[in-house]
Amino acid sequence: MESFVHLRKGKTPKRIHADLDGLKDDELGRGGFVGRTANMYRRNDPTAYRTVGPLRPTDVLSSELKPADATDAQGGPLLMFSNADCQVLLSRRSEPMPFFVRYVDGDLLLFSHKGSGLLETEFGPLPYREGDWVYLPKACTFRQVPATESTWLMIQATDEFRVPPAGTLGRHFPFDPAQVTIPEPFPIDDDGRDEYEVRLYHEGGPTSLFYQHHPLDVEGWRGDNFPFTFNIEDYTVITSESVHLPPTVHLFMQATGVYVMNFLPKPAESVPGTERTPWYHRNVDYDEIAFFHAGSLYGIPMPPGLISHAPQGVHHGAPEKARERARRKFDEYDRVDWSVIAIDTRRRLVPSAEILANDLGQH
Ligand SMILES: [Fe+2]
Fold it and tell me: Which positions bind homogentisate (predicted)?
């Protein structure tokens, strides 16, 4: 943040995101929430608009979507959003994959929303359960064997996912890499079939490779490029008593143009007058996806599996009614118990036809 001066003009509360006195707090900020910023105090709700044209927020219940793998073991996940840096997909598989798979266009980061099971990988078996993040390096061969129907939010980046720089928090960063689960080698014997299909998912694909031996035949491995799981229960949430912190403090992993965050249960801000609901904004440099995993906001349940897309430059934020309620119930609640997964992308995301067809039409 290169500016030295932070101006104050007209009617502004003394504290940031607090004591609004009926005004609407609207942030016009660059670089997500870490660049130059103007907080504007408006008379009216900036999300009270109707849209004409393609840039509009969409809200979809993922349970209404029908990925091919939900009904056909041979099927694949459903594309929900894409740009040049990433694809966001949905999988809902209950049958074991009858093939092995590699995502060869980039690293894969998937969030286990529902269900449990096993990933057989080249590096060894990796069990997964609800709340797990699963990281699979680009072109890693694996096979999903669900124990129960498993809903995954999947992000394929065209670049590598990396742990963000820890900055001033050092090893107290919310993501403790010592808490990941890493597979142990477990070579699998041939089972007598003629061929083993390894399906390569890629742009213009798929392509299948057929081996006459079991592709998960690794006796041992060494190095620093491997799959792992990390459960959101093990994420350390950073909090403040007097300001609702920006989403960037909850950054979990990142790839070029793609930032993945965990918004998890935490104590609510306690200093009177503090706004506990994220302020209105139009995140001008990032598209945002929020995936509601579980929980509620001050007693109002959030629909599990709801996926919301807010295009960059278009105002969004919790409804005014929810803000008023949060202020009214300030003394009644001392915690936020939401679990929301957020994906911010530098380039515009294009919603797929299935997303547009299932938009709840709230805008
Ligand atoms: Fe946002």
Answer: 316
Band (15; pLDDT cuts 50, 70, 90)? very high
- For ligand 1, the distance from its centroid to the CA atom of residue 190, given in whole angstroms, is 49
Distance 177 CA to ligand 1 centre (A): 27
172 is in an annotated binding site: no
Answering whether pTM is above 0.90, one says yes
Amino acid at 64: E
241 is a domain residue = yes
Are residues 340 and 259 part of one domain? yes
Q: pLDDT tens for residues 166-210?
A: 888 888 888 888 999 999 999 999 999 999 999 999 999 999 999
Q: Report helix, strand and coil shares of the chain as percent, to nearest 5.
A: 10, 35, 55
Q: Do 155 and 299 reside in the same domain of the chain?
A: no
- Is 21 annotated in some ligand binding site? no
Answer yes or no: is 214 a known binding residue. Answer: no
Q: Is 244 a catalytic residue?
A: yes
310 touches 316 (CB < 8 A): yes
